[in-house]
Amino acid sequence: MSAWRGLLREFPDLLPSVPDASVVTLLEGNTPLIPAPALAGRIAPGLEVYLKFEGMNPTGSFKDRGMTVAVSRAHASGAKVVLCASTGNTSASAAAYAARAGLRCAVVIPDGQIALGKLAQAMVHGARVLAVRGNFDRALELVRELGEEGAAVVVNSINPDRIEGQKTIAFEIVRQLGGRVPDVHALPVGNAGNITATWKGYLERSARDGGGTPRMMGFQAEGAAPIVRGARVLEPKTLATAIKIGNPASWAGALDARDRSRGLIDMVSDDEIVAAYRALADLEGVFVEPASAAGVAGLLKLGPTGALEGARTAVCTLTGHGLKDPERAVQVSPKVETVGADVAELRRALLG
Ligand code: F0G
Fold first, then answer.
1. pLDDT in tens, 172-194
2. C-alpha to C-alpha distances, 219 to 109, 268, 296, nearest whole angstrom
3. What domain count does the chain have?
4. Residues 99, 226 share a domain
5. Are residue 85 and residue 184 in the same domain, yes or no?
6. Which of 127, 159, 191 represents a domain boundary (last residue)?
7. Contact status, residue 170 vs residue 9, Cβ threshold 8 Å
8. What spacing in Å lies between the alpha carbon of 347 and ligand 1's midpoint?
């Protein structure tokens, strides 16, 4: 097998063209599709569940798929600065790709509301990090305004290049399933770019190769569920900070994916998110950030209701790596025990 060359070179027919000298890649994509038999047993008998672990991308989230396209195109256009608003992962990815491209990067984050690992990433790659006294939705409004003034290329998912890159996940999944299309695709929904992109990918794939499309099942956090409630949430609340969003930019795209796929968009509580987060770690050995567990939380919630009846295969996108948010992991896990540096004491502690 030849070495993976990154999305722009692996999927040239699907993506906007970029002159080779402007391709900015960290060899993103090609993430593992991990079978999850123990979790499947808790969701619905007979269902096969697979985890598309996007935390294995170079900066630890699915954002890299779109960022390689957006930053490469910005570079090709002669831009000097890229700009984004972010709950953390977009900023981490933008900072890394901009560094590699030799572009300046500015990120606007909600003050005090992004996980430590993500902040560290933006900082280490040399981005200008501006924390606004406001939430993500406000940060995105400000960034849009600057973008319209032409101050910088906005690399949020309102930039269509991001959606193009992110759609590649659908092509990878069907390839990894040996040409089978899953019956259900579950994922978290925040700003709704990812459900829009994943659905676009499945549609394009089916138009090319046939075989149909899955039902798209998106899950918002209960305290940040504008699409489920049918109205903006002015003060979104959830411990899953990545999806703490009250006015999704791709709202219409999410509704379209839901309706055309005969899917659904539902919500899960923070307790259900944490339970799914722990189940992924305990039962499957997969460490994700809290928001990434929302799709799994949704399937755990729907399984017993019969809503998944007839489905044979479900895929969940696990959007980001657990190391993004180490503080949450420590908070929800059993405490560290301290013992003396003594073999008898250690034996007692381990063997009781
Ligand atoms: N999961 C994670 C880990 C995310 O970082 C995000 C979004 C989502 C899910 C939701 O994806 O917005 O396309 O519906 N993070 C954005 C950011 C908002 O700024 O990093 P979406």
1. 999 999 999 999 999 999 999 99
2. 23, 7, 9
3. 2
4. no
5. no
6. 159
7. no
8. 45
State the CATH number of the domain containing residue 90.
3.40.50.1100
Residues of the domain holding 72: 63-159
Cα of 191 from ligand 1 centre, angstroms: 6
Q: Sheet holding 153-154: strands in order across?
A: 128-132, 104-110, 81-85, 153-154
Judgement on whether residues 20 and 87 belong to the same structural domain of the protein? no
- Cα separation of 312 and 310, whole Å? 6
**DSSP summary character for residue 321:** B
What pTM was estimated for this model as a whole?
0.98
285 CA to centre of ligand 1 in angstroms:
22
Strands in 215-221's sheet, in edge-to-edge order, are 33-35, 48-53, 313-318, 184-188, 215-221, 264-268
Atom of ligand 1 nearest to the CA of 288: 3
pLDDT, tens only, 270-284: 999 999 999 999 999
Cα–Cα nearest to 59, from 89, 36, 79, 39: 89
Task: Give CA torsion, residues 162, 204, 61, 216, to 10 deg.
Answer: 120
Among 159, 192, 224, identify where a domain stops.
159
Residue closest to 190 by CA, chosen among 73, 268, 261, 132 = 268
> Over the stretch 71-91, which tens digit does the pLDDT of each residue have?
999 999 999 999 999 999 999
Instruction: Please give all residues whose beta carbon lies within 6 A of any atom in ligand 1, as ranges.
Output: 61, 63, 86-90, 157, 188-194, 242-243, 289, 291-292, 319-320
Residue entry with tokens 């079978």 = 35
Of all protein residues, the one whose alpha carbon is nearest to atom 15 of ligand 1 is 242
Residue 47 covered by a domain? yes
